[in-house]
Write a structure and sequence with these properties.
heterodimer; A: mainly alpha; B: mainly alpha; three-stranded antiparallel beta sheet; two-stranded antiparallel sheet; globular
C-alpha cells in the first residue's frame, strides 16, 4: 500500500476529471 | 458489527452491520467523488496549473486533494461546540465520534480547523492558500520539479502580496499560514492510513 491515492480509488477519479478537458500531453 | 467511516463527507458515520464492507465503501466513494472532482476543477482554475505536464498534475492532485478538502471543509468542524457536521446535515459530538474509534485523527483535524479559523482569512485569501497547498504537495513522482517549484513560488508571492497589502500591520499572519502546510501533510498521512485500514480490515 505504498500508493494510498491509487488504492483508495482517488487516482482514477482524478484522472477521469482531468481528462474531461485536458488533452494528453507528452511526458 | 456496524461499520464505521466517520468522515464528514460520508452521508452517515455508521453503516448497518447488514451492509457489506464493499457496499459501505462504494456508498462512501459516491459521497466523496463530487468533492474530489471539485478539487480537480479548482486546480484547473489555478493560473499555470494546466501548463504543467498531465503526469505532474495528477501527482500533485493525488497527494494534495485531501489537504485541499481539509481546508475547504474546515467549517464542518466546530471547535467551540466540539461537533462535526456530516453531509446528512447531522452534527455529531467529538465524544461520540471518539467512541467510534476516530480519536486522534479527529483531534488533529479540530486542532487544524481551530488554528486556521483563528487566522480569519477572506474567501479569496483562502482560495489562494488552497492553491499553495495543492502545489506544495508531496513532490514524490513529480518529473518537472522546476516547473512545479516556479508555480509554487508565484502562488506564494501572490498570497503574501494579498495578505500583507490587506493587513500591513500584521506581519505574523503570512508565516502562520505557511506553518499550517506541514500540519496538513501530517493530517494527510494519518487520514490515508485510516482509510486504508478500513479497506483492509473494516
Amino acid at each position: 500500500f505504498s500508493d494510498p491515492a491509487s488504492n483508495l480509488g482517488l487516482e482514477d477519479i482524478i484522472r477521469k476529471a482531468l481528462m474531461g478537458n485536458l488533452e494528453e500531453k507528452p511526458e | 458489527g456496524a461499520k464505521v467511516l466517520a468522515c464528514p463527507l460520508n452521508s452517515c458515520p455508521v453503516a448497518p452491520a447488514s451492509r457489506s464492507s464493499q457496499e459501505v465503501w462504494e456508498s462512501f466513494s459516491q459521497c466523496f467523488t463530487p468533492a474530489v472532482k471539485e478539487v480537480v476543477e479548482f486546480a484547473k482554475s489555478i493560473p499555470g496549473f494546466q501548463s504543467l505536464s498531465q503526469h505532474d498534475q495528477v501527482m500533485l492532485l493525488k497527494s494534495g486533494t485531501f489537504q485541499v478538502l481539509m481546508v475547504r471543509f474546515c467549517s464542518l468542524f466546530d471547535p467551540k461546540e466540539r461537533t462535526v457536521t456530516f453531509l446528512n446535515g447531522q452534527s455529531y459530538s467529538l465524544a461520540s465520534l471518539r467512541a467510534l474509534g476516530m480519536g486522534s485523527l479527529l483531534d488533529a483535524m479540530f486542532d487544524f480547523s481551530e488554528k486556521l479559523g483563528y487566522l480569519g482569512l477572506e474567501p479569496d485569501e483562502m482560495a489562494l492558500f488552497m492553491a499553495v497547498v495543492l502545489v506544495s504537495a508531496d513532490r514524490s513522482g513529480i518529473v518537472e520539479v522546476g516547473a512545479v517549484e516556479q508555480l509554487q513560488e508565484n502562488l506564494i508571492k501572490a498570497l503574501r502580496s494579498l495578505i500583507t497589502s490587506r493587513r500591513p500591520d500584521d506581519s505574523t499572519l503570512f508565516p502562520k499560514l505557511l506553518l499550517r502546510l506541514p500540519d496538513l501533510r501530517t493530517l494527510n498521512n494519518h487520514h490515508s492510513d485510516k482509510l486504508l485500514a478500513f479497506r483492509i480490515d473494516p
